From TrEMBL:
Its main location: periplasm. This is Transcriptional regulator. CDD domains: RseB. The keyword Signal applies. Residues 1-19 form the signal peptide. PANTHER family: PTHR38782, SIGMA-E FACTOR REGULATORY PROTEIN RSEB. It comes from Microvirgula aerodenitrificans. The keyword tRNA-binding does not apply.
Amino acid sequence: MSGWRAALCVLVVPVCAAAVPLGGKQAVALLDRVAAAAYRQSYSGIYQHQYARSLMTYRLAHASGLGNPLEKRESLDDPPWEVVRDNQSLTVYAPDRQALKAARTGAFQTFPSLFGDNRAEIARHYAVERIGKDRAAGRDCVWWQLTPRDAQRYPRRFCADIRTSLILKSAILTADRQIIDRLSFSELKLGKLGDLGQLQPQYRDGAVWRMPVAAGDRGDGGRGIQIPGLPEGFSLQRDVSRRLLSGQQAVRHLVYSDGVASLSVFIERVPDAVQPTAMQNGAITLRSRKMGDILVTVVGDLPDNAVQSVSHSIILLRP
């Protein structure tokens, strides 16, 4: 076993064994099972999200069997905020505007639901293999690795519950196998929620922000923009005009995904004083560039080379 693999076994996968690759149909079947487990089951628990130098803790309650799955995710750190989400919308509640802005770090999380609907596409762009066993929240799970077939995506790992296929842990790694993002349940209860009050927001009378999340909301359908540098396998998931958590002005927001990674493109008019920026925070990369009085910002859980390629290749067509 190579040095990096042995070290990673200690850090992430306590029980390592020879990797077992899956064929395309097997990989899709696995991804279908874990996706269904996160959507169709009811569960509640506490999980941690570690990235860069940050460690955040969240409480999650997810209820199925109500016609439309409903979940509430709340920050257990300061400042407090909470998100209630169903198939149609995502609503952030906080005691005040400052706390509402702080929700940007976790409001869009979907753990333990990590995969989109285009799971056959995932198997075309990632090799899937079983790499070991582990435990989380008192439950046994199996680690699976998604290794990208190009340099424009991160390797990823997830540990799925042996009995239910629900993802209990996940990790995003760099090409040299450094962990830059990890999520893990520390407490988990499976089965029907005993108290549906867990799904009700506490800060209904505070600051509120809502965003539609219905699948297939493609608005302008990507018209007026070309992205030759978009990695293969990424397709448009959403094209909407919306107000960001951080401000009042509506911006155009396009979302692209390969079923695992997501890439957002924001297009907005800005004053001359606004300058483009670049940053890296864990697995998230952000790059922006100005095109006249238009600021185009690209952000996603992709390596810097991929985000930079997308940013530099964007062409805005005149109406």
